[in-house]
Design brief:
Helix content is 43%, strand content 16%. With 716 residues, it is of the alpha/beta class. The chain has three domains: 183 residues, FAD/NAD(P)-binding domain (3-Layer(bba) Sandwich); 115 residues, FAD/NAD(P)-binding domain (3-Layer(bba) Sandwich), CATH 3.50.50.60; 271 residues, no CATH class. Strand 9 and strand 10 form a beta hairpin.
């Protein structure tokens, strides 16, 4: 037995994850390279395609690779100065890279395609007999693709490459990449040989499966752990230990048991919740039949000849072991990408930090001027002291000042960016939703209160009591007969309208639509869903961010006494002390909530925390509606059993919900266990049409407390 330093080995095992987990912690997802249209990266001439850029299906990767190859072939090219210079170097001979190579081969370009293993090696390493389904193709398949086993698929594809004249250079690894003299210089390694290649373009089709994550073994003797299943029949009659808690580990344990192996499955977590429900059920059936021994809350810490040592809260013993499988996933090649100058989503750099800061300053200036806050630089004696007066226009009895122009600019932003968002979300449900957001902002939140109501009412801003309900606007429940010469009937009427909107219409809407007010009608949501749509994937995820949603309840509770103090003072209830307390509460609430959180932080944090920081963490109206929705809202998102784990639904969720986990565990997603605002984008982006938004949640009226809703797998 070779004695090794346990701390050092555990550090090494975790180190491979640290490079990408920094960005993953920020956005809560498996990160990917920053890439523009067509996969173009920050390094000119380098394009990413396939699984590295989230092509969720083999068919989708094939289509993307073929289209990229056609685009590269169609580009005008200057005469080649030297024959040694390639037009394109393709790194990775998976479905995407192979299809790109076939397009370049047909166009007669000078290219090379390399792979550190063999063509389609990732698929070839899948378990024997694994079915591969032909899904995700758009148009005719560049490679022959019909349902079949992985052996059949790989054999057909390799034959097709040979027939097309595409020669894959196997055993060649990309070591370094840099731009020099208008060309890209790639340093390659084949065995002990290291050599350079010059090329005009590089296509990275390397996938996200870099190095397998190793077991944190304190000691190693005997055969090293296997990182793929291969042929389950090889385990027949042997004692096999499988370490891992995902689908790969569960499927491997079942396949080995069915092949006649004696199987122990060691899961570090408390259960198999990372695996799909059908795999969990198969493992449980095998456990009940005595064909698999399941150890949860444990991990393999030592490998000896013929045995392994497992330790954990409920297990600390030695298991007999002839073959050890470490199926813990793989660490993506993000360290190399960063080294080559390809930033990863979520990485913070000076340019990005300065961009976020500049956006924050712009938002600050906009809202200070729009709200007449008199803060720097617009206050007396400050550089822009006269800006508000310069923007004030008198039209008869009407004054058009900064608030009017600010609301107009806000509406124009929602309209312009809404049209852009419509081009990104083309589904009919999304088109209806964006039409609702745009029209509500332009008509109900601008045209009616700012253009029509001033012609009919003394206080046209009171119209907002219907469209901006309490507690989002505390003034929706405030009125008094002495204001602006009004009478008791008028004051009572405005109060009744505000109460009707907040306590009758909103609950009825929530009952039928959940929190869809935030994604279909709200003015804050209008800007978030349009201008902020490009940042939707940056919403923080996980238990810590979910607990932070509690802040919205605090703002909601603060709105109650603040509204009461203003209302009492308006009706002459109380004395001078109450009036002075009211003034303090009103000023504090307005400055901290209306300006600081809703206006400034809520918009300025789009690039950092996604487009829903205000709505998710601070908005008192959403907090109020969420309490109602948890009790009796009917909408829910359900999934069938075909989830492929592509993360598209989770990546596009602006509320930071782990939608994929709901789908894979077969758990309906609703407002009883999530902060879903029923935008439906997750349903639209799912490549398998797994998700469906329905209004048939069985509702049981019950009080679940005021804390943020949590999914069932999270400890309470």
């Amino acid at each position: 037995m070779t004695a090794l330093d346990p701390a050092q080995l555990r550090s090494t095992a975790r180190a491979q994850l640290q490079v990408w987990s920094g960005a993953a912690r920020f956005i809560g997802l498996t990160p990917r390279p920053e890439a523009g249209d067509g996969g173009a990266t920050a390094l000119p001439g380098v394009t990413v395609v396939g699984d590295l850029l989230d092509a969720p299906l083999i068919g989708a990767a094939m289509t993307a690779g073929a289209r990229l190859g056609e685009r590269l072939a169609a580009r005008p090219r200057a005469p080649r100065a030297e024959d040694a210079v390639l037009d394109v170097l393709i790194v990775g001979a998976g479905p995407a890279g192979a299809c790109a190579a076939m397009a370049l081969q047909r166009a007669g370009l000078r290219y090379r395609i390399i792979d550190q293993h063999d063509a389609f090696a990732t698929i070839a390493a899948l378990p024997t007999g694994k079915m591969i389904y032909a899904e995700g193709l758009v148009g005719p398949p560049p490679l022959p693709f019909t349902d079949g086993t992985k052996e059949q698929q790989v054999a057909r594809w390799r034959s097709a490459l040979a027939a097309a004249g595409v020669q894959v250079e196997t055993g060649v690894q990309l070591v370094d990449l840099e731009r020099a003299g208008g060309l890209l210089r790639a340093k390659l390694r084949r065995g002990a040989e290291v050599f350079d290649v010059q090329t005009r373009e590089v296509v990275l089709a390397i996938g996200r499966r870099g190095q397998p994550v190793p077991l944190p073994l304190a000691a190693l003797a005997g055969d090293p752990p296997l990182t793929s299943l291969g042929d389950p029949a090889e385990g027949a009659g042997r004692r096999c230990v499988v370490a891992g808690g995902g689908d790969s580990a569960a499927e491997a344990a079942v396949a080995l048991a069915e092949a006649g192996a004696e199987v122990s499955l060691v899961v570090r977590g408390p259960d198999l919740s990372r695996a799909r429900p059908r795999n969990q059920a198969r493992v449980r059936a095998m456990v009940e039949a005595g064909k698999i021994r399941l150890w949860t809350g444990a991990e393999v810490t030592e490998r000896t000849t013929g045995a392994v040592r497992i330790r954990g809260e409920a297990a600390d013993q030695t298991l007999p072991c002839d073959r050890l499988y470490a199926l813990l996933g793989a660490s993506p090649p993000y360290a190399a990408l960063r080294r080559w100058g390809l930033p990863i989503e979520g990485d913070w750099r000076w340019a990005r930090a300065l961009g976020v800061a500049a956006f924050g300053v712009l938002v600050y200036l906009f809202y200070v001027l729009k709200g007449k806050w008199g803060l720097f630089p617009f206050g007396p004696g400050d550089p822009l002291e006269g800006a508000a007066a310069a923007l004030t226009l008198h039209i008869g009895a009407r004054e058009l000042g900064p608030p009017f122009w600010g609301t107009l600019a806000y509406s124009v932003l929602v309209l312009v960016f809404g049209l852009r968002a419509l081009s990104a979300h083309r589904g009919p449900a999304q088109r209806r939703r964006y039409f609702s957001l745009i029209s509500f902002q332009v008509v109900a939140l601008f045209a009616v209160p700012e253009l029509i109501a001033p012609l009919m009412l003394d206080r046209p801003w009171k119209v907002y009591a219907l469209t901006v309900p309490w507690p989002l606007s505390i003034w929706s429940l405030v009125d008094a007969p002495g204001w602006a010469g009004g009478d008791l009937v008028a004051a009572a009427g405005w109060l009744a309208l505000g109460g009707l909107s907040t306590f009758v219409l909103i609950p009825l809407y929530v009952r039928k639509n959940g929190l869809a007010f935030c994604s279909r009608l709200c003015g804050c949501g209008g800007l978030a869903e349009t201008m902020g749509d490009v940042w939707r994937s940056r919403a923080p995820r996980g238990p810590a961010s979910r607990q932070a949603e509690w802040a919205g309840r605090l703002v909601f509770f603060a709105a109650i006494p603040t509204t009461a103090l203003i209302l009492f003072d308006a009706w002459g209830v109380g004395g001078a002390a109450l009036g002075s307390t009211k003034a303090f509460a009103q000023r504090w609430y307005g400055l901290m909530v209306d300006f600081g959180l809703a206006s400034l932080a809520g918009v300025a944090l789009y690039p950092a925390l996604g487009n829903r920081a205000w709505c998710r963490f601070f908005c008192p109206l959403r907090a109020y509606m969420e309490v109602l929705a948890r009790i009796f809202a009917k909408p829910q998102i359900v999934a069938d059993s075909r989830c492929i784990g592509c993360e598209q639904c989770t990546r596009h969720c602006q509320m930071g919900i782990e939608v994929q986990r709901f789908a894979q565990t077969g758990t309906p997603l609703h407002n009883g266990n999530s902060a879903c605002i029923q935008c439906g984008v997750c349903v639209e982006v799912c490549p398998m049409d797994v998700l469906e938004l329905r209004s048939d949640r069985p509702v049981q009226l019950r009080w679940e407390g005021l804390g943020p809703p949590r999914p069932p797998w999270e400890a309470r």
